[in-house]
Amino acid sequence: MCNKIIVFDVNETLLDTGALNPIFERVFGDERILRQWFSELIIYSQSLTLSGSYMPFGELAVAVLQMVAEIRGTILSEQDINEFRKRLATLPAHPDALPALEMLRAAGFRLVTLTNSSTQAGEKVLEQSGLAHFFEKQFSVEEIKRFKPATENYTSVAQRLGVNADLLRLVAAHTWDILGATACGWKGALVARPGNAVLRVGKQPDIVEKDLIAVAHRIIIIDRPE
């Protein structure tokens, strides 16, 4: 088995947040508000970390939804919030996730996850998506109560796995996540899904592709020993 470990972000990288589109279309009349909600969610998760606070990601997700609704003059019902929670807890896997994970496992890589979601929520959503069995460990920021890209998350994963940073590569659909990982000496692979792109400043990921299958091909070429 290869001694290198691939660490996967979960939401948007492995799981399709587009499954939330119907509720944004119904409530706001525009599914594109999903992108605003997600961007605000990341901003306020990082704001909590910088200000020394923490709350579970799922609770924050609902609070940000309520904030966006207030900004847009939209009234959310209890039914709306319950539907949102249910959809968030049952996000499906992207179609490219399973074949990419099969490729990497067949190539001998060790696979783990690191998510902003709580430990319980992260494990549950991966299990129902059919992807959980690929991962030997599932890490959550809940363990240190600081959201990504706080560097403590990445150093904690390396310590708990008992490996040096140069053996770790983060696969994520978000440049902000990769910035945190590369700052800790990890390699990065960006899945540039629609709505995500490279930030052309700072240390760059050495792999950038449009889908997970292409990312897996590149990882096998670059990281697997001869």
From TrEMBL:
Cited CDD domains: HAD_L2-DEX (cd02588)
Annotated keywords: Hydrolase, Metal-binding
Pfam families in alphabetical order: Hydrolase
EC number: 3.8.1.2
Catalysed transformations (reactions): an (S)-2-haloacid + H2O = a (2R)-2-hydroxycarboxylate + a halide anion + H(+)
Function: Catalyzes the hydrolytic dehalogenation of small (S)-2-haloalkanoic acids to yield the corresponding (R)-2-hydroxyalkanoic acids.
Name recorded for this polypeptide: (S)-2-haloacid dehalogenase
Organism: Erwinia plantamica
Lineage, broadest ranks: Bacteria, Pseudomonadati, Pseudomonadota, Gammaproteobacteria, Enterobacterales
